[in-house]
Amino acid sequence: MNDVLDVALRLIVVFVVFLTFPLIVGQTEHKVMAHMQGRLGPMYAGGFHGWAQLVADGVKFAQKEDVVPAAADRRVFQLAPAVALLPYLLVLVAIPIGPGEGAVGQVVDAGIFFVLAVMGVGVLGSLMAGWASANKFSLLGGLRTAAQLLAYELPMLLAAASVAMAAGTVSLPGILNAFEWWWLPWQIVGALVFFVAGLAELQRPPFDMPVADSEIIFGAYTEYTGLRFALFLLAEYAGIVVLCGLTTVLFLGGWHGPFGADGLGWLWTLLKTAILAFLVIWLRVSYPRLREDQLQKLAWTVLVPLALAQIALTGIVKVAIN
Amino acid sequence: MTLAITAPLAASAPQGFLSPTGVEIAFVLVGIATLAAAIVTVTTKQLVHAALWLVVALGGLAVEYLLLTAEFIAWVQVLIYVGSVVVLLLFGLMLTKAPIGRSPDADSGNRWAALTVAAASAAALVWVVVDAFRTQWIDLDGAVQGSTEVTGSILFRHWVLPFEALSVLLLAALVGAIVLSRKNGDSEPAPDGTTQPSTADKEQR
């Protein structure tokens, strides 16, 4: 009975994190973008900086009519948002937030593989949405999503493999237990490749060609309204949380910090994740959108060679140490 | 196969065929669902639905691996097949005009031949597996026998040569694909008649 309670408690905590963190990131994005671009936006709802605007937006989404286009493939169209969102919930279960058994939803033996595999499934949701909408813009968005995923999956995997080689394990808590501070400069190239490829996989600016509003309206999500549209948006922000958490765990040492690693380890994880999420938002307001050919070129001629070089470096250093 | 070689399987305990445990029941149920999804994949007349049912079938296979304690293989299955191969498949389908609804020409005249080949290969595989693992049972309470560590050490100690041979085979396939896709390569002086239609064909699309 105690085991059941333990598992239930962990799952509830993960679920609450899954429901709140993406919203926090979304709200932070609104406010940070507003301040960086010197435009205020809604400032009155709720008082301080219009924090209740998020609630109002949620109510608005819930009230909208749930439209399925007449020519659409109904079942696939309606299933797509769930396929896009649920993988991120599963990934969160495996990300350790602090030292010890208690600070992770579930210790997965092949953690890196689990996380990357399940994250890859989320893209199927965009593809399903793009095809089932019976809309040319949606189809183009779906095509671009697929092309982008195929290009950026490889460097992401290679960069993660480099960390796994360094740690000698593919379990996420195992990697954190093996972490030393000098891994930071050692794996910095891999970290950059992983983060950039992850951004591209989430279709965040500057890699938002699949949802480029000036060309194809909103890509695969053009025909969606109301709650289903909100679920896609939530999937994007959950993706940011997952990507930043993963980069923190794999490359930035997770709960390791200059001090207080025993009791306050989880704070270090949260702090690093938050800084990375801020970086994601910052990149959105700083860089123009990459063109489709530039996207592919960046992946195949820059990121893949860099990731391979990082793996070679990891191997050499590893052999030299032993 | 790999499990049978190193990991000592608990074969001593009497295992009743007619009194299955929960894991065995789950295994059979997932197997039935996987088989059903696979059959729908090849019989549905809607092209994209076939690809999506393939996702269900491959995912069911991953769950079967998990139930057999082969965690690493299960996640690699999801990563490679669901995450990449199906995405590539859908990408290809979207490039064609995969219509919403039924494709009337989705039937092939070869279906009886295909059914024969499928039945023959299934029979061969079932026979081999049954013959190899007839009386062996996985001890679920002991150490995990399909963990990444076990799989890795077996792969790179006992099966290095087949592994490397496979990678050479894949490399050859990759090079072959690149050669085939370069229609207008300068190393291969094509006759005038063949290059012209191919470019015109591209423009048409």
Automatic annotation (TrEMBL), chain A:
Enzyme Commission number: 7.1.1.-
Keywords: Cell membrane, Membrane, NAD, Quinone, Translocase, Transmembrane, Transmembrane helix, Ubiquinone
Top-level taxon in the UniProt lineage: Bacteria
Topology within the bilayer: Multi-pass membrane protein
Enzyme type, top EC level: translocase
Subcellular location: Cell membrane; Membrane
Keyword Transmembrane helix attributed: yes
Transmembrane region(s): 7-26, 79-98, 110-133, 154-176, 182-200, 229-253, 265-286, 298-321
Molecular functions (GO terms): NADH dehydrogenase activity; oxidoreductase activity, acting on NAD(P)H, quinone or similar compound as acceptor; quinone binding
Cellular component, GO, one term: plasma membrane
Presence of the UniProt keyword Translocase in the record: yes
Biological processes, Gene Ontology terms: aerobic respiration
Enzymatic reactions: a quinone + NADH + 5 H(+)(in) = a quinol + NAD(+) + 4 H(+)(out)
Protein role: NDH-1 shuttles electrons from NADH, via FMN and iron-sulfur (Fe-S) centers, to quinones in the respiratory chain. The immediate electron acceptor for the enzyme in this species is believed to be ubiquinone. Couples the redox reaction to proton translocation (for every two electrons transferred, four hydrogen ions are translocated across the cytoplasmic membrane), and thus conserves the redox energy in a proton gradient. This subunit may bind ubiquinone.
Assembly mode: NDH-1 is composed of 14 different subunits. Subunits NuoA, H, J, K, L, M, N constitute the membrane sector of the complex.
Family from the record: Belongs to the complex I subunit 1 family.
PANTHER family: NADH DEHYDROGENASE SUBUNIT 1, NADH-UBIQUINONE OXIDOREDUCTASE CHAIN 1
Protein name (Swiss-Prot/TrEMBL): NADH-quinone oxidoreductase subunit H
Origin organism lineage: Bacteria, Bacillati, Actinomycetota, Actinomycetes, Kitasatosporales
UniProtKB/TrEMBL annotation, chain B:
Primary location group: membrane
Domain of life: Bacteria
Pfam families linked to this entry: Oxidored_q3
Transmembrane segments: 22-40, 47-66, 72-91, 112-130, 159-180
Alphabetic keyword roster: Cell membrane, Membrane, NAD, Quinone, Transmembrane, Transmembrane helix
Gene Ontology molecular function: any one: NADH dehydrogenase (ubiquinone) activity
Protein name: NADH-quinone oxidoreductase subunit J
Record organism: Streptomyces indicus
Lineage: Bacteria, Bacillati, Actinomycetota, Actinomycetes, Kitasatosporales
